[in-house]
Amino acid sequence: MKHSIEGFSKLSKAEKVDWITKNYFNHPEEAKTLLTSYWNQNNELQKRHDEFIENTLSNFYLPLGVAPNFIINGKNYTLPMVIEESSVVAAAGNAAKYWSQRGGFTAKVLSIDKVGQIHFFYKGNKASLSSFVATHTAQWLEKVREISAKMETRGGGIKSLTLVDKTADLPHYYQLHLTFSTADAMGANFINSCLEHIAKSVEISVINNSVILNEGGIDIVLCILSNYTPNCLVHVQVSCPIEDLGKQDKMEASIFAKKLVQAVAIAKVEPYRAVTHNKGIMNGVDALVIATGNDFRAIEAGVHAFASRSGRYSSLSEASINNGQFTMELTLPLALGTVGGLTSLHPMVKWSLELLGNPNAEELMKIIAVAGLAQNFAALRSLVTSGIQKGHMKMHLLNILNQLGANEQQKVKALVYFKTNTVSVQAVRHYLENF
After folding, report:
1. Active site annotation includes 85
2. Does the pLDDT of residue 394 top 60, yes or no?
3. CATH number, span 114-226
4. pLDDT beyond 80 at 232
5. Active-site residue among 235, 279, 350, 413?
6. pTM, 2 dp
7. Any idea what the Cα angle at residue 373 is, between residues 370 and 377, rounded to 5°?
8. Which of 139, 129, 136, 127 shows the shortest CA–CA distance to 216?
9. Which of 38, 79, 261, 432 is 20 to 30 Å from the Cα of 240, by its Cα?
10. Is 329 noted as a catalytic residue in this protein?
11. Is 279 among the residues known to form the active site?
12. 325-333 and 233-241: which strand pairing?
């Protein structure tokens, strides 16, 4: 049967659910019941969620957990974390408690510039193009002030506009490269609006410039912000004397510190390891990004591009030992917002931001980067001592018990039993069979 339909978006929500379940599921009523069971009983709240995206049928829930005891620049935080992977929240909390007893995390925003580009082709003389751009830049920026004025009152706006020659990479390809500050907004809509407005001004200027017209004019292809933000950076670190690290799983502090440094060094030179190493960092970063209503796809794309900036994919974090002092640090590109978008619409985003003390964008950059470093430390701590599976599988135990259909009595007993026994699917299955 061919499942196609005209005008699906114009159907009511109930009609969409009915069509989907009847055409794609063997048991339509069960499928429909599952979808409707995840609707919020508060109709106004559900309507708000329905309007976030298009063709909404239901809600898809992820757990919201918290990790307490984070000391960042001397201030105590409890971090909201939205993630489906067991052990991540526990690892963050353990790392936070560990470093809270050793001075906590320090964090500093290095820069906040974001980028937008107008991509175009021009077949004429470069000197003519350079003169054209230099002559008209001030005019273009003045004309876009009707869009940028409000942002400027909040401390943001367009910081620069430059012509970039990319013809060595692609024949006749140039850019107008703009840098922006967007204050406490992520700023995607603001940046894109400014770019499109300037592009229209450029086209008008071309019409009135015989030199550029006679050389074929300018062919603007697209105007778009970049999610690569290597100049929107935050740096975080932890540091303490080696002896303060303490014995770890019977491993002396000096050996523990050495292995941590070696583990990071491996991730610096081995891309296969670096990808998993950085994924662990992003466990913490993404969980906070989602909880605060920011765009985790944009963050992921920008971070991994940053990890490849040398020409080879490498570790985002660093670790070192100098004069008996162990230091672990992380620098990340994070373009975040605390106003606009879901921050003012999603009730749980508001809740998460209030939990964090309603930070501004730069404060949120620090908090989220700290979550990434905490996850990285926690993962490496496990890897170089007991191994990753020991702690991870214990956190995964309830998932395994639920998958195997354990009842509440079995769960209670199993949680006690596996405190001192190795967790695996086979071991849990064997335990339940002999319960």
Report:
1. yes
2. no
3. 3.30.70.420
4. yes
5. 279
6. 0.89
7. 140
8. 129
9. 79
10. no
11. yes
12. antiparallel
